Amino acid sequence: MPQIACDIADLAAAGDYALPAWVSIVRVYNKLVRRLERMLDQHGLCLAHFEILVKLSMAEGITQQELASRLLVTKGNVCTLLDRMELNHWVERRAHPEDRRANRLFLTPKGKKLLEQAFPSHIKIVDETMGILSNTQQKSVFEALSRLDRELIEE
C-alpha cells in the first residue's frame, strides 16, 4: 500500500496508476463543477436545478421518483429542489392520471426559455474542455469511465 505522503507523480512513474487516476478524476471533476457553477450563476441557476431542467427536457412527464433515479439522488432531495423550481415557475407538477400518489413533471415555458439560454454556455464549456483531447483520447476516456460507471454498484 502506498504511503499517504507519497508523491502521486512518483506512483505514476512507477507504473501504479490507480491512485493517480483517482486523484485526477476527482481534481478534474471539482474543476469542472466550479466552472459550470460560475457559468450557471450568470443565469440564476445552481447545478442541481440545471440538471433537472436538462433531464426534464429529455423526458417530460416523468415522476419525481424517476427523476430521482436518473439524478442518483433521493426522492426527498428532488422534492426540495422541485419546490424551489416550482416557486420560480420553471417546472410544474401535474397529477399522474394512473397513480394518485405520484406527480408528473413538466417544464414551464419559463423553464424551457431558461434552459435554452443556459445550454449553449454549457456546450461551450464541454467543447472547450474536451477539445483539449484528441477524438481518440475522448473515446478512451468515455470507454474507461463508462466501464467504471457500469461496474460501480449503488449503495
Lateral strand order in the biggest sheet: 1-2
End-to-end distance: 25 Å
Oligomer: single chain
Largest sheet: 2 strands, antiparallel
User: Helix coverage percent of residues?
Assistant: 55-70%
Structural class: mainly alpha
Q: Which strand-content bin applies to the residues?
A: 5-15%
CA radius of gyration: 19 Å
pLDDT under 50 segments (min length 5)?
A: none
Strand segment tally: 2
Average pLDDT number: 89
The gross shape turns out to be elongated
Number of helices: 7
Written as H for each helix and E for each strand, in order along the chain, the element string is: HHHHHEEHH
Key traits:
155 residues, mainly alpha, two-stranded antiparallel ribbon, 7 helices, 66% helix, elongated
Please outline what is shown here:
With 155 residues, this protein is mostly helical. It is built from seven helices and two strands.
Report what the structure shows.
The chain is mainly α and 155 residues long. 66% of the residues lie in helices and 6% in strands. Strands 1-2 form a two-stranded antiparallel ribbon. A hairpin with a 7-residue loop joins β1 and β2. The longest helix has 24 residues. The radius of gyration is 19 Å and the shape is elongated.
Question: Which secondary structure elements does this structure contain, and how are they paired or packed?
Answer:
Layout: H1 8-13, H2 18-41, H3 47-58, H4 64-71, H5 75-87, E1 91-95, E2 103-107, H6 109-130, H7 135-151
Antiparallel strand pairs: 1-2
Helix pairs in contact: 2-6, 3-6, 4-5
